[in-house]
Write a structure and sequence with these properties.
By secondary structure, this protein is of the alpha/beta class. It has helices at 4-18, 23-29, 78-94, 115-129, 148-162, 186-202, 218-229, 252-262, 285-290, 328-336, 344-347, 350-364, 370-394, 399-417, 421-424; strands at residues 34-43, 49-60, 66-73, 100-107, 138-142, 210-214, 233-239, 242-245, 268-271, 274-277, 281-283, 295-298, 317-320, 340-342. Helices cover 45% and strands 19% of the residues. The strands form 3 sheets. A 7-stranded mixed β-sheet has the order 11-8-7-6-12-13-14, with helices on both faces. It has a 5-stranded mixed β-sheet with strand order 1-2-4-3-5. The protein has a two-stranded antiparallel sheet with strand order 9-10. α4 (115-129) crosses α5 (148-162). The structure holds nicotinamide-adenine-dinucleotide (NAD).
Length: 426
Amino acid sequence: MDSIFDDAQSRLTEVFSRIDLPDDVRERLAHPKRSLTVSIPVRMDDGSLKVFTGHRVQFDDTRGPTKGGIRFHPDVTLDEVTSLSFWMTIKCAIMGLPFGGAKGGVVVNPKNLSLLEVERLSRGYVRAIADIIGPKRDIPAPDVYTNSTIMGWMADEYSTIRREQLPAVITGKPVHLNGSLGRESATGRGALHILDQWAELQGINPKETTVAIQGFGNAGYHFARLAFQHGYKIVAVSDSKGAIYTERGLHPDSVMEHKRQYQELKAIYCDTSVCETGDFTTFSNEELVTMKVDVLVLAALENVITIDNADRIQAKTILEIANGPITSQADAILNQHDITVLPDVLANAGGVTVSYFEWVQNRAGLYWEEEEVNERLAKFMRREAGHIFKRAEKEETTLRTAAYLHGVERIAGAIQERGTREYFTG
Ligand code: NAD
């Protein structure tokens, strides 16, 4: 299947075969509500003008204003952004958040731009989409290669356009600019709740569990840091340049410290104040994905496990922190091999959940302690995971299908309450 969106939609086939829903629901979930493509002219540092392409897709707003991140990446396409907005719709419903789903993206390699050029691009993107976003319409957030600083510039640009302070238009902002404590680590923390809850259910001891992580960015790093604190043994991590492995286990903070300083991954073990470079092996991202570990964490991009490598996966459990890292065909193969997939729409929902908390705090003008944010996050993640794990067991299906059933039922409920053919024809 060439289109990511077609592949994403194919997941609904099994869902609709298991629950009896009006055709209206299927029809509504097959089409994004609005897709906007824009040109963003940016004055470069050398004085030249460069025009970048951006997209914002609002998939469905039946359950509330749409919500979803903004990605800066050279491979961004409308097809990808549409799929991501569809997954956001399902995810917000799974978590019971009062949001629909959206996503944005700009076709750019931000690593080739200066910081000032990134700021001009970020502000230009907001000017281009300002008519369709807003605290009660569509609320963006960070995603791949965007961060809290960029969200701060974007919120500032939007408030300038609207001539009033509207921090709730964007989440994932810096804490000093009305961001929420705990947002930065929320995706990794939420994913760890899901893995922990699954481990408890299966009687798995974290201290005897080896973990490999693809993607050592915001989500992957915070997951690694917190999982390490919980006793999991992180044996391998990778970024876009390659992977490192060491049997004795990595110290995520030391690896990150080295990466920040030297722009490369290096295996370092730091305990108290003494750091030493451990023996480590460098290898490719593909090798990391197929290596023998207990848990494989995918925290980079989509389409990592496909029909081409699914047969070679050796991990017993896969935690999807990235959106859409496993294709539907690959999913079927993993299922045949009894590999458990903790699905993206649940496992990475910690980010949007704390984004919701940030939006609530911005609108109330009352800010919470970090402990309160983390406690509420734990409650949301564990509550929804509990429903999904039970449902998968009861209906003898995969965790992904159980998660989709859980979310689609909530969306369907909202669509039905607004009226369907059955309602209008009596
Ligand atoms: P990020 O930009 O902070 O990090 C991405 C990481 O992936 C970087 O370390 C990069 O080097 C690495 N990477 C890129 N291409 C790679 C490749 N081919 N092989 C291995 N590593 C590669 O982005 P992020 O915010 O951490 O997002 C990562 C994934 O998690 C994305 O799929 C994103 O949609 C998803 N996600 C993020 C959040 C969030 O709050 N940040 C929330 C939900 C889902």
